[in-house]
Design brief:
The structure holds 2 protein chains of 2 kinds. Chain A is of the alpha/beta class. In chain A, 37% of the residues lie in helices and 21% in strands. In chain A, α8 links the parallel β8 and β9. The chains are: A alpha/beta, B alpha/beta. The complex binds thiamine diphosphate and magnesium ion. The site of thiamine diphosphate has 18 residues of chain B, from β3, α3 and β5.
Chain lengths: 565, 287
């Protein structure tokens, strides 16, 4: 039992506001929910929508079918009518457009007029929320409390919004009251309703990141917004003049001792690439959140793709160690971004954290995070371990040189250098030192490899069908495995969060024992399957690839799997 | 006690004998000694080029980064540790060419950084191509018919963008240059010193003698007079003014960053204790 609500309209019509309000109401009413956004790269007009899926437990991802369509314009109806079921309902404003005569599922609510009657056209969103609540057979208590919190500081707005809510509720009740039954609630503890970018921003802050420099770029801007709103916590956010400045500022701050972050998307990352290589050479810790969107070039700015895995694996001239981690789902990403900071500090390397628009903009209801699990070890030299004179690039067995900060020790200076250098950090050109320094840096790769987490098998423990994926497709793949299980199939998922150095043990063991293996990726060339083959010599049987800029729906994956088993 | 010797290193210097960079290095070492700055409290950021090798020849903290990217790491370091005295030093190509965008926006930010540009009007390390400040008509292996782009005027640009400290020095006037450096180092905010520097190997036009004949130390100039400064900044040719053109402090970047103010602000960001558990309340807004 679940309810799917799709709210659609032109940019500027309040689609996201309605979704956010409804989402919070459902959260506080004890339902599990997930919300995803589909929007165009424009400020007004076009077609945008948000999908809210409500269930007893928190759903893992969005699905394609729709129970309630909140159609803020006519286009929304025509685009989404195929997703409607017999019992679905369409909430729309009959004074702005009409539905075709044969369409009997309409719930006409004059959103604009009722909002104006309540005190202003801006409250059309609140009217729509009232209408949805009555259609679902819910009361308005939670919504009222929320409006109180939201508008308490705005003179008279609470009352006006109450009125708008009630008007929508009453009007819709004439056409359809409690047309759906809500799922059974299975959650009794407090949950957060939070999206991917907010989770990453919160994790960065709680990981002790105190400096972010970035240049705005969808889908990563939300991280910058989140941190910029938290400057009272002692974080500095600087909008750089370009991504080149962003990464170089972050490297300067990190060199001087602060956990630092930058976030961007493919085009911005392309500009950061020389800086990435600088991080490798100067052995300066840095975390880069790279939110993928479809390329090449500007591509589809507000949509999703997993098309930059190969790019981040190989970005940067020269050979240097790095780690690449990915965001699979909210509960995991909170801790995994912390791991990125930990690895960066411990191994003094750049760490790239891959997300995409699907992860960044999707919200779910999740249990509170355990902040005590976060690591804040800085791996700096302490007075008693200091060997004088201090040498920034001292050659060690594991390749990790003692890291001191400028100004940390009286009488000692710290020299970081982008030229090849000796142990002190001074420019050299001789062959022997060069060779020893290359080897020192590359030794860190073995340490990094030992830190990578093997994926755990989800689903049947002796599967016939194996699905493989990475990053934000986790939810859709997990549901697919569940559905295959319901059909009596022995199916399992191996989903990778840590991508480089690639942990290959679990997958190498299982791959040869299954009947059919599938690698599922949101790209056109199967980049993970290629990486996997390169690292293991093994090949998957089928690739399921999607590259239209939209995230996978579980039913699409299921269909493809069924075709091939 | 402090002497320029505190700042010397054992590195073999890779500049051509007679290069103006030696004088700039000496002026810097003397300026730091006279200001009694300990080596570990100073950070020198540079890019890539002959000038940008300077962190290897002076004993202070150094971040020798990428070509054109000397300023952004310096800004980051100021945010992370505002107790460091931060200097940026690079060539004219590095600063005004490859790094032009950072030059513009760092001036707008106004961080407390002293910026010393070794302006030899040529790309030295890559063997003599034109730089943004090369004079019209200068012949090189690339600009075979002479430079046709009009020269970049760093002083006019800095003044136009509202820089609080704008000066020009000459490597051949070491004592004077040292005074300029000291004033820039003590100035609260972004301070630009564009330093004319002969390149004996590749700039056969703007030679030591060429500069020597033209530079004139400013006397009786009111450094609070912006219009006068703008006029002086445009002077190039027979007479080239050296000295402080403009000096009027404005609120610094650091003084306007919330996290660096108040009680917490007294301790550099880099040295503050932190416990992730102290931020559990961040979750409340999502409930
Ligand atoms: C991204 C990049 N492009 C080009 C170069 C090559 N390069 C090194 S130094 C330099 C120009 C140096 O000129 P300037 O900054 O004036 O310094 P100078 O050697 O004259 O002191 C160039 C083009 C480089 N190192 N990096
Ligand atoms: Mg030069």
């Amino acid at each position: 039992m679940e309810i799917n609500i799709l709210i659609g309209g032109a940019a500027g019509q309040g689609v996201e506001t309605i979704a956010a309000l409804l989402g919070k109401v459902m959260l506080r009413s004890g339902y599990g929910l997930c919300l995803d956004k589909d929007y165009m790269s424009r400020v007004r007009g076009g077609h945008n929508f948000s999908r809210l899926r409500i269930a007893g437990e928190t759903p893992w991802c969005a699905t394609g079918k729709v129970d309630i369509l909140v159609s803020m314009d006519q286009e929304t109806y025509f685009i989404h009518q195929d997703t409607l079921q017999e019992k679905s309902r369409i909430i729309y404003d009959p004074e702005s457009f009409s539905l075709p005569q044969e369409e009997k599922r309409g719930v006409p609510v004059p959103l604009q007029r009722l909002a104006k009657e309540a005190g202003g056209a801006v409250m059309a969103n609140t009217v729509a929320v009232g209408a949805v609540l009555v259609v679902l057979g819910m009361d308005t208590d939670s919504a009222e409390k929320l409006l109180q919190e939201m508008f308490a500081h705005k003179e008279g707005m609470v009352e006006k919004n109450y009125l708008a809510l009630k008007k929508g509720y009453k009007e819709a009740s004439h056409h359809c009251s409690a047309c759906f039954s809500m799922p059974d609630k299975k959650i009794d503890e407090k949950r957060l309703f939070i999206d991917g970018n907010e989770v990453l921003g919160m994790s960065a802050l709680a990981s002790g990141c105190r400096f972010l420099s970035a240049y705005p770029m969808t889908p990563s801007t939300g991280i910058m917004n989140y941190l910029a709103g938290k400057q009272e916590c002692g974080v500095v956010v600087e909008q750089a003049e370009d991504e080149i400045a962003a990464i170089n500022m972050v490297l300067g701050a990190s060199y001087a001792g602060v956990r630092s972050l930058t976030c961007t998307s493919g085009g911005g990352f392309a500009l950061m690439v020389e800086g990435l290589s600088l991080a490798g050479m100067t052995e300066t810790p840095v975390v880069i959140v790279m939110g993928m969107r479809p390329g090449p070039a500007t591509g589809l700015p507000t949509r999703t793709e997993q098309g930059d895995l190969e790019f981040v694996l190989h970005a940067g001239h020269g050979e240097f160690p790095r780690a690449v981690l990915s965001a699979t789902h909210l509960e995991d990403a909170f801790y995994r971004l912390n791991k990125a900071f930990y690895l960066a500090d411990k191994y003094q390397v750049p760490v790239i954290f891959l997300t995409d628009q699907n992860f960044a903009d999707s919200a779910r209801s999740v249990p509170p995070f355990d902040f005590q699990r976060l690591n804040y070890e800085r791996h700096l030299v302490e007075e008693k371990g200091l060997i004088r004179p201090y040498q920034r690039y001292r050659i060690t067995e594991d390749g990790i040189s003692p890291r001191a900060l400028p100004g940390q020790f009286s009488g000692e200076v710290v020299l970081a250098d982008s030229d090849e250098h000796d142990e002190k950090g001074n420019i050299i050109e001789d062959a022997d030192t060069r060779r020893r320094m290359v080897e020192k840096r590359l030794r860190k790769q073995a340490g990094l490899a030992s830190e990578m987490e093997e994926p755990t098998l989800y689903g049947h423990q002796e599967p016939d069908i194996l699905l493989m994926g990475w990053g934000s497709t986790y939810g859709a793949l997990r549901e697919t495995v569940d559905n295959l299980g319901f059909q009596g199939r022995k199916a399992a998922l191996l989903h990778f969060s840590d991508l480089w150095p690639l942990p290959v043990k679990a997958v190498s063991e299982i791959l040869t024992s299954v009947d059919k293996s599938f690698c599922v990726e949101n790209n056109a060339t199967g980049q993970f399957a290629a990486l996997f083959r390169r690292e293991t010599g093994l090949e998957v049987d089928h690739k399921i690839l999607k590259y239209d800029g939209r995230p996978f729906m579980p039913e699409e994956i299921l269909q493809e799997v069924q075709k091939n088993v | 006690m402090f002497s320029p010797n505190c700042f010397t290193t054992d590195q073999e210097i890779a500049w051509c004998p007679g290069c103006g960079n030696f004088d700039i290095l000496q002026a810097l070492q003397e300026a730091l000694a006279e200001l009694e700055l300990s080596p570990h409290r100073v950070l020198l950021c540079s890019g890539i080029g002959q000038a940008a090798k300077i962190p290897h020849y002076i004993r202070v903290n150094g971040f020798n980064g990428l070509h054109g990217r000397a300023l952004p790491p310096a800004v980051g370091a100021r945010i992370a540790n505002s107790s460091l005295k931060v200097i940026v030093q690079s060539g004219d190509g590095d600063t005004y060419g490859e790094g032009g965008n950072h030059f513009l926006h760092t001036i707008r930010r106004n961080p407390d950084i002293a910026h010393f540009v070794h302006n030899n009007q040529v790309y030295g390390l890559t063997k003599g191509q034109a730089s943004p400040t090369s004079d019209l008509g200068m012949n090189t292996k690339v600009q075979t018919a002479g430079v046709i782009l009009s020269p970049f005027n760093p002083l006019s640009l800095a003044l136009a963008l509202g820089a609080g400290f704008v000066a020009r020095g000459f490597s051949g006037e070491t004592e004077h240059l040292k005074q300029l450096m000291k004033a820039a180092l003590e100035f609260p905010g972004y301070a630009l010193v564009d330093i004319l520097q002969p390149c004996i190997s590749f700039n056969k036009l703007n030679t030591f003698a060429w500069y020597k004949k033209r530079v004139q130390k400013l006397e009786g100039h009111d450094t609070g007079d912006q219009e006068a400064a703008e006029r002086l900044a445009r002077q190039w040719g027979d007479k080239i003014p050296i000295g402080i053109l403009y000096q009027v402090p404005a609120p610094t970047f650091e003084s306007r960053i919330p996290a660096l103010q108040g009680e917490a602000g007294e301790k550099p960001l880099a040295g503050r204790p932190f416990n992730p558990g102290s931020l559990v309340h961040l979750q409340e807004e999502f409930m």
